Amino acid sequence: MVLNYIWIAFFLIAFVIALVKLVVMGDTTVFPAMMDSTFSSSKTAFEISLGLTGVLALWLGVMKIGERGGVVNLLARLLSPVFTRLFPDIPKGHPVTGSIFMNIAANMLGLDNAATPLGLKAMEQLQELNTKKDTATNPMIMFLVLNTSGLTLIPVSILVYRVQLGAAQPTDVFIPILLATFFSTLAGIIITSLYQRINLLNRTMLLTLGIMSAVVATIIWGFGRMSKEQMDVASTSTANIMLMVIIIGFILAGMRKRVNVYDAFIEGAKDGFQTAVRIIPYLVAILVAIGVFRASGAMDMLVDGVRWCVEACGGNSDFVGALPTALMKPLSGSGARGMMVDAMTTYGADSFVGRLSCVFQGSTDTTFYILAVYFGSVGIRYTRHAVACGLLADLAGIIAAIAICYMFFG
Length: 410
Known about the structure:
Layout: H1 2-25, H2 30-69, H3 71-86, H4 96-108, H5 112-128, H6 138-148, H7 156-164, H8 174-196, H9 203-224, H10 228-256, H11 261-278, H12 280-295, H13 298-312, H14 323-328, H15 333-347, H16 352-363, H17 367-377, H18 386-409
């Protein structure tokens, strides 16, 4: 229901702004630009879904081998103490906990192509536990918020863009990104737990969050001692090795259980193709609305309004130039990436705005895109508090990014 109101608001706001531009300012290009964006966004949505088909087929096939080989059940048992507290409505030892873990691990390593199909598999398993098939459950919302908060340990693509745009120290945003995304994820967990009345003040959760904090601190320390070249090699090698270990490990587990791994892979791959087809309408709907909103100039007006408010209050408005990246990130990953590149091109890769835009890009994920794809894949219409929790986690990431960048680069 919330997505319905947001979708309508995008179109109405865009139409009103475009109408004012036409009547008052005589701008005859705005409506053609909006119509062009509807066609280009529809095409982009289909291309994204088409591009996902092969990846979905691959990873859902691999996951099916893991299920038959018992790997997913093993992960579920190992994670049961934490997941029974974070996802109290999921039965203890249910295979979906293994799928959720695989998705989160892929996201943390920046492996978007692997994370999406693993996440869609987890949503299908969560839907099996759902008694109201058109309404999001508490575990679904917690899982979505963990995704939208964007916890990423190795932001390889952002570092690559900084290299291409001539940053003197492309890796200088690594630690700020890691800190900002950690605070975003932590805020998402706390906010969603408050909504769902989950008690986090117990030994298991406090120990888990403490270990996560220690791991993040260790990674910060380790990567902080590396050169750019060493960091690129280490991050890329770690991601690729872990992916291959997962595939080989699942195959060996299937062989140990005397599973016909080829037939299991084919069965899972068929599900991947069907899932890719199901998400097309949802992608078209959300991307067209975002495209129209951008083409009308609404995003530019919003940023200018924020700048005026900050300056009127006597605040430092240096961060406002990077805000388009932060505001676009919940709506479109590719749009935010374009805003980040534009900020670095306009202000300089080593400028405060250029660095902050990179931290914005890495601190959260595409909230509305994830909600549309994940909920759309299982036919969820009523999202309950998912949008509110996801956007509040995004807001926490944005505030943390601004504060951290002033600390490191201000």
